[in-house]
Fold this sequence. Notes:
Strand content of chain A: 25-35%
Helix content of chain B: 25-40%
Oligomer: heterodimer
Largest sheet of chain A: 7 strands, antiparallel
Order of helices and strands of chain B: EHEHEHEHEH
Radius of gyration of chain A: 15 Å
Structural class of chain A: alpha+beta
Strand order of the largest sheet of chain B: 2-1-3-4-5
Number of helices of chain A: 3
Helix content of chain A: 25-40%
Amino acid sequence: MSSSHIPPDEASLRTALDGAVRETVEAFGDSVLPVPEAAFDEGDSGVGETLTIAAAGALNGTFILRCSTPAAAGLTELMLGDPGEPGSEDRQDALGEILNMIVGSVKRSLSGEPSYFSLSVPSPAAVPAEPLAGSRCIYQLGGKKAPFLVGFLPG
Amino acid sequence: MKMKDQSYPTINEKRPDGLNDYGSPYRVLVVDDSGAMRKIVGRALKSEAFDVCGEAADGEEALEQYKVLSPDAVTMDINMPGMNGIESLKKLMAYDKDAKVVMLTTEGQKETVATAINEGAEGFVVKPPQKEAICSKVRKAIRG
């Protein structure tokens, strides 16, 4: 990795995240719609599942997927054809792979050179107490009013 | 004039990717730490009549399964905890230099792909794997 490589700015990262979310969901035959910040109330019981992938290198921090309970069911069903049970291993596995594909797509679109940054495998995280600071995009799947958030927390 | 018997398959009818010249399914071992991804890859392969003869969640298990099953091909995730896909590929090729391995990656980085090809992988597919891509890559890996 080149030490002179400059990390992406906020706007570039948001654009990459947005493109990656759309590409990943569309690959499974659905679409996403952006929703206003107010539609996703973090820090309360509305957040059902949180998955993270750590990035290290020119981009340091954590990619995060946070889903309301119905969005977690919708995304799991999109991938596996079955919504699974809340908090189950199957659901966390499916959501982790969705985040993995989103982050892989972000890396492809941002990388100017190999090993620009490395990524961990996905892992479930505790339901957050605080809203995510940093780059964030909020969507709903197709016509369903079930919001989920994809973001990056520098650190 | 004698009428053509329409019950016979036409010469242009496409044989599923997963069948050999004798109509028997090719046997594939699917390796990925994610059960969800193994299910997606397996579903795609089965839709083209491949026989998913085994699954493994990591490199060690993959090698054990390979020795027992002797599959026609392997699909191998690159980003796995513990022994990653590249290390698993090296061990597999050391065991069987004729192994046919198709790598799966979310990142599609040139450096990683080049390393995999140098280590003996026959091809790679970027996740999310499209059914047509994975089936044709596996068939091509087997048939050359």
